[in-house]
Design a protein that fits this description.
This protein is an alpha/beta fold. The chain has 14 helices and 20 strands. α3 packs parallel to α4, α7 runs antiparallel to α10 and α12 packs across α14.
């Protein structure tokens, strides 16, 4: 299990773990035995960082962690691997326990499918069983995202992504169906088929449904490009190296679906994932081709490396036909969004002001920040084609995340819609966030949904 959920348990018998702001250290010290203070002075401890406080007979009496701010959600993010084996008792406000407990759990993540990695042996105890169970499920949702993105493409092609969705569906009693290969043409998903047809791994549309039909309908759509060579507009080697993460949008919606189902949100959930490999062969789609979409709009292919919006547009058009309460899509769509916001802040687009307000508030509350970018409609002009209804890639190198969002917007007419343009990858190791696959905005969306529908 990648997230060691047994490393966070309900209980009251651990060594006290005291987390305090460094400026409060002197106040804390006033009530401590002189022998302990002498030990801290001898070890040079001044209230910053970790200290193991000895008790009588050389036992461990207390763990002390001095931090800059208790509001930091990652203060325990790397602590689990630094403490010796044993149980540690954490107390504090509800908000603190939520932040710190989740940070601790996410710090236990290990991707060990292909390599033996030392496991965390320390265990955190919180005296609140429902809270612990909730944190475990939230962490499992994040771990699912990380695991799927971290898995190399030889083991994460469309059929493997389908298997992962089926396992999730079986776990929570959801209904799963899929369209494979030529079925996509029969059922009118032509752009999904066009992008994926050059691969020996047949393209698919995965469809998971869960919940009471009488509940508010929420539809999630995730880009599932399991590997992106760029197609005939092939990427350079450096650009292709980490394209296993191009199915990160699919991983995000599956991780979010796990949270929704595990914590029993009263929604009627649908998850749509167009799963393809953008490969190169004799039947690959070409620059200059004109494709007809599920919606009926024709698209001139300017660049075969702008394939994500092609697979998404058919799935979004299908999602819109049911007029759910909202559609939320996640996609590793553009480098332009990373230039604008960097790799650690996910951008999103929406015209639904109430959704945007709720998302911003939710992200701030659960320390999963998101940032709204503009759907600047004058840039629609950049999507004009001389021979089709629109092009798949604007000729201008500027505002690429916006024009990609505007392209997708053409396929959602009836429903409040949010489009996340995400990195899905940590480029540097931070507490609780190792290098590799990462969930961006998932906890913010879950919090928003929970506030609306709980």
């Amino acid at each position: 299990m990648p997230i060691l959920t047994d490393r966070l348990q309900a209980g009251t018998t651990g060594v006290p773990l005291t987390v305090l702001e460094s400026r409060e250290f002197e106040t804390w010290a006033q009530s401590r035995p002189e022998a302990q203070l002498a030990w801290l002075r001898a070890s040079g401890y001044t209230g910053k960082g970790l200290a193991l406080v000895p008790g009588e007979g050389g036992s461990l009496a207390e763990v002390l962690l001095g931090v800059a701010s208790l509001d930091d959600p990652w203060i325990l993010g790397d602590l689990a691997k630094r403490l010796p084996e044993g149980d540690y008792q954490l107390t504090g406000s509800d908000e603190f326990l939520d932040r710190a407990g989740l940070g601790w759990l996410l710090g236990t993540y290990r991707f060990d499918r292909y390599k033996s990695i030392d496991l965390v042996k320390a265990r955190l105890l919180i005296d609140d069983e429902p809270r612990v169970a909730r944190l475990q499920q939230l962490a499992q949702g994040v771990a699912l995202v990380r695991d799927l993105v971290n898995t190399p493409p030889n083991d994460m092609m469309p059929e493997h992504l389908s298997e992962a969705a089926q396992v999730l569906a079986a776990q929570f009693g959801a209904r799963f169906t899929e369209l494979v290969g030529e079925q996509l043409l029969t059922e009118n998903y032509p752009t999904i088929h066009a992008v994926g047809r050059a691969s020996v791994h047949e393209p698919r549309l995965l469809d998971l449904r869960w919940g009471d039909a009488g509940h508010p309908k929420v539809t999630l759509v995730g880009k599932g490009v399991c590997f992106d060579s760029g197609g005939l507009d092939i990427k350079p080697a450096a650009g292709m190296r980490y394209m296993k993460k191009d199915m990160g949008g699919a991983a995000h919606v599956l991780g979010l679906a796990h949270m929704i189902m595990a914590l029993q949100l009263p929604v009627n959930l649908r998850v749509l994932i167009p799963a393809v490999e953008n490969a190169v062969s004799g039947n690959a789609f070409r620059p200059g081709d004109v494709l007809k979409t599920r919606k009926g709009l024709t698209v001139e292919i300017d660049n075969t490396d702008a394939e994500g919006r092609l697979v998404l547009c058919d799935a979004l058009a299908e999602a819109d036909t049911e007029t759910p309460d909202m559609i939320i899509d996640f996609a590793t769509l553009t480098g332009a969004a990373r230039v604008a916001l960097g790799t650690e802040l996910p951008g999103y687009f929406t015209d639904a002001d109430a959704l945007a307000r709720d998302l911003n508030a939710a992200g701030k509350k659960v320390s999963d920040p998101v940032w709204q970018l503009p759907l600047h409609t004058p840039y629609d002009d950049f999507l004009k084609s001389e021979v089709a209804d629109l092009v798949n890639c604007a000729p201008s190198p500027f505002g690429g995340a916006i024009t990609a969002g505007l392209y997708l917007k053409r396929f959602v007419e009836q429903t409040p819609w949010v489009h996340f343009d995400i990195m899905a990858w940590n480029q540097r190791a931070l507490p609780g966030r190792p290098v590799g696959g990462e969930a961006f905005g998932v906890r913010a969306v879950f919090e928003m949904l929970e506030q609306r529908y709980r």
